[in-house]
Amino acid sequence: MDKLKQFSSQAVYKLARFMYGRNGYDNLARFCNMISIMLLVLNLFAGSATIYILWFLSFGYSLFRVYSKNIPKRYEENQKFLSMTELPRRYLSLLKLQIRDRKVSRYYICKNCHQQIRVPKGKGRIEIRCPKCSEKFIKKT
Ligand SMILES: [Zn+2]
How far is the CA of 128 from the centre of ligand 1 (A)? Predict the structure, then answer.
């Protein structure tokens, strides 16, 4: 048992040393990994060579990001990815809140400034005023 413990702590240590100075899992790497898993599942049914190549590319790219030692460059790419996907990611987190609080609240995004607004459910048609930019719009809650 001690041998096993020693072995596993050594393995953790080796892994930590190996990962030192490398980029690791960032948002873009995780995104590519997610895409590659979806492609893999899709290809269980489709069996297409094109999808296989796309899977290889997305999986390879996510690995490349994780093990890359050029951290400033990868950081810059990750930031670009985050700013490019800001709106869809915001809608996605809104959707999660919407599902979680579906019985008590409704969430809206201001068309003008993209501020997230929460209103209680079941008030009928009401005028909502954005707390950030004072834009008004009518919604049924
Ligand atoms: Zn607003």
Answer: 10
26: left (phi over 0), alpha (psi -120 to 50) or beta: beta
In a domain, 103, yes or no: yes
Distance 129 CA to ligand 1 centre (A): 8
pLDDT tens for 97-124 read: 999 999 999 998 898 988 889 999 888 8
Which residues make Cβ contacts (< 8 Å) with residue 127, sequence separation at least 6? 136, 137, 138
Give me the domain span that covers residue 132: 87-140
Asked, for residue 31, whether it belongs to a domain, the answer is yes
Total-model pTM: 0.70
Residue 4 within a domain:
no
Opening angle at CA 133, ends 131 and 137, nearest 5: 75
Distance (angstroms) between ligand 1 centre and the Cα of 113 equals 4
Same structural domain for residues 42 and 59? yes
> Do both 67 and 101 map to the same domain?
no
pLDDT digits over 9-56, tens only? 999 999 899 889 999 999 999 999 999 999 999 999 999 999 999 999
Q: How far is the CA of 137 from the centre of ligand 1 (A)?
A: 10
